[in-house]
Amino acid sequence: KPPIILKGAECCSSTVRSEKHEKQLAIVARWYQVLKVDNFVFFGTANAIYQLLKSNVEHQATLPRPTRMKYFILDLHGVTGIDLTAKDVFVKVKRLLNDHGITLIWTVGGKIMRKLRRWGILKEEPFDSIDLALRYVEDGCLSRAHKLCEKWLVNNTVRSIFEQQTMATIFSLSVRSDDKSLASTRLRPWGERLNLKEDQMIFTESSQDDNLYMLYDGEVEVQSSDGSCRAVFNGSFFNLDALLISVGSLPGPPTTVCATAKKDTMVLKITKQKFRQCMREDGALAQKLLLTLIVQNENSRPGKKRALWKTDRETSMIKLDTVPFVGSIASRLLLGDDYIIDLTPSQIENFSTIYDIIAADGGGEEIPMTSFADHVKQEARAQGSTLDPEQFNLLIEKSGIDEDGDGSLSKDEFLNFLRGLIIAAIPAKEVDTLKIAYDNALAEHPEGPMDEVRIKALFNNLGFDVKHPGIHAVLGSVDADGDGEVDFDEFMAGVGMMKKLLAQSHDLDNAFLEYKGRATILRRSLVITESASRGTNKGRRRATLTKRLSSLFTAKATAVSHQEESDEVGRGNTQQDISDNDGNDVRKLELEVPDLVAFLKITPEEAEEMIFLADEDDGDDAGTIDRAEFQQLLKTWA
Predict the structure, then answer these.
(1) How many helices (H) and strands (E) are present in the chain, helices listed first?
(2) What is the pLDDT of residues 79-138, one digit of tens each?
(3) Which of 215-229, 235-249, 312-326, 565-579 has the lowest mean pLDDT?
(4) Residue 635 half-sphere exposure, CB side, CA atoms within 13 Å?
(5) What's the pLDDT tens digit per position in 389-406?
(6) What percent of the chain has pLDDT over 90?
(7) Cβ atoms within 10 Å, residue 402
(8) Other Cβ atoms within 10 Å of 199 Cβ, number
(9) In sequence order, what DSSP letters do the residues of 288-304 get, joined into one string?
(10) CA dihedral 411, 417, 420, 421 (to 10 degrees)
(11) Residue 373, Cβ density class (10 Å: 0-12 exposed, 13-18 middle, ≥19 buried)
């Protein structure tokens, strides 16, 4: 067969990953390609491979730089022999890829590996299988993307919202089917944590284990009945086929026969009895868990392909300048915060159960702050977080959750913290207005349930953007008991959560404007300084310009700070004149590569890739980031 180069989306490792990481890999799949070679390689075969690769690399050079290939996997496991005449061609292959900055990954073994080493071609350590090579490349792509996204955290507002989103995700109660995540904290009451040592067997074929496991932290290898092995990463489930078969969601028999911890590992074990109890007592959670398992089982099937990621452009940020918002009740909620909205009874019950479990792990009635910090780290790892332990410690310290500073966490402190994390306070004078709005909506169909469809319509009438992606988590949380009926207290909690989204969206807008404003000034300073250096009196003119630009930068920073602190200019005035120093409407501004280079002090290549990870446009509109894409970036990569 003639050699064919496969794109990254067509080649996936068997590694079991979380749904969030699968989505991220769909974005960066174009960063790697695979060429599988079979049979005996003569000079003609090798030359055909080189010409195919050369043509592909030349095509890559015509693509936008951030979308070009970064890894190339050359799979020679199917090769039975290589003729000496093909030696120089493989040397040219290595040189071609190296000249274009593409990392060559070899998968080869046996006599072919020894021959390539003897010829001096193979100096790197090859992989034993294409699956291991794909896993290595996928990990590399994810790591590269995560490091780039962390560069956005130079802005304190962005960092603060990132940290809030991390904590909110950990303690999310939403179990809606259209919400793409399932917080492991929600499953914690139904399972038992197990700490495993490296190389410890979790179960064997003879044990006929029918428990479900979720990996918190570490690494697990599972073996299938056909002898193949797969790695399981954080946030993923394993032995799920046994559970799916037992409830009739998958035909039998189970294919997973054993599992081993490849390093020190923590897992959550959910027995079949506990799952059946969950189905009886928390049907919404059980249904969400089943859907999650079915999706993961499909994502883990052999020969799967990833569809290149496309974003629904309707799931954008909350727009403060839309006609429905200006002058609406939602806009007035931003004018004060003297009315504290309580958690719903269902939220209190679920959070209290979680508190009791953490306290029991710590061996007391209250939670030592060290135990709480450990819990947050473990849950975040299960969500795929890449923050290091020190960052978690700082995050928890900054949260102010230990109100009295005694080093332990009471249940009241825990609930107060979670309330403030997900629910914003509102102006007390608007409570009666919201009660009237709720009663009027209820009166329209008094016999029907006040379900999420009607609540969503009511949110829309109040001026909230119900197309915001965060609406799913809000609706899933206010009706966390799953009874399909949202009473007034649950509705008010939803209002507080929608205001929290609205405030965060506005804060991110301000951060976006600060990025653009400071980058513009820095770019101007560079142009003017370079121009001045080419004239006479270079030193004096540079000093004068630097002083003026320094004043301009300080003035701009002060203006941004005042904008964030002023209700009248910021959240309070929904009809504000949003413009930069040149009078341009910033709602139409976009961040470009030179902006990121100037403000973040990174290379153009890094800036291009950062924009690629956030950019949702195709064609002529690609290559820049608008405010909606900037906000979606945090949700996708947080």
Answers:
(1) 23, 14
(2) 999 999 999 999 999 999 999 999 999 999 899 999 999 999 998 889 988 989 999 999
(3) 565-579
(4) 21
(5) 677 777 777 777 888 888
(6) 37
(7) 18
(8) 10
(9) HHHHHHHHHHHHTSTT-
(10) -120
(11) middle
Residue 430, SS3? helix
The Cα–Cα gap between 426 and 332 comes to 9
The CA–CA distances, whole Å, from 214 to 251, 252, 253, 302 equal: 22, 21, 21, 21
Tokens 């107060």, located at residue = 416
Cβ-based neighbours of 476, under 8 Å, separated by 6 or more: 173, 174, 175, 176, 179
DSSP string, 4-57: -EEEGGG---S-B--HHHHHHHHHHGGGEEEEEEEEEE-HHHHHHHHHHHHHHH
Coil, helix or strand for 319?
A: coil
256 phi and psi angles, rounded to 5 deg: -80, 125
The amino acid sitting at 166 is T
Q: What is the spatial order of strands in the sheet that 220-224 belongs to?
A: 201-203, 256-261, 220-224, 229-232
CB 238 within 8 A of CB 220: yes
Cα separations in angstroms, 418 against 171, 227, 347, 616: 8, 46, 10, 33
Question: Per DSSP, which regions of 507-594 are E strands?
Answer: none
Q: How far apart are CA 420 and CA 397, in angstroms?
A: 15
Strands (E), 83-235: 103-107, 192-196, 201-203, 212-217, 220-224, 229-232
What span, in angstroms and rounded, lies between the C-alpha atoms of 555 and 378? 43
Angle at CA of residue 618, ends 146 and 632, nearest 5°: 40
325, 502 in Cβ contact below 8 A? no
* Rounded distance between C-alpha atoms, residue 559 and residue 452, angstroms: 41
Q: Are 64 and 612 in contact (CB under 8 A)?
A: yes
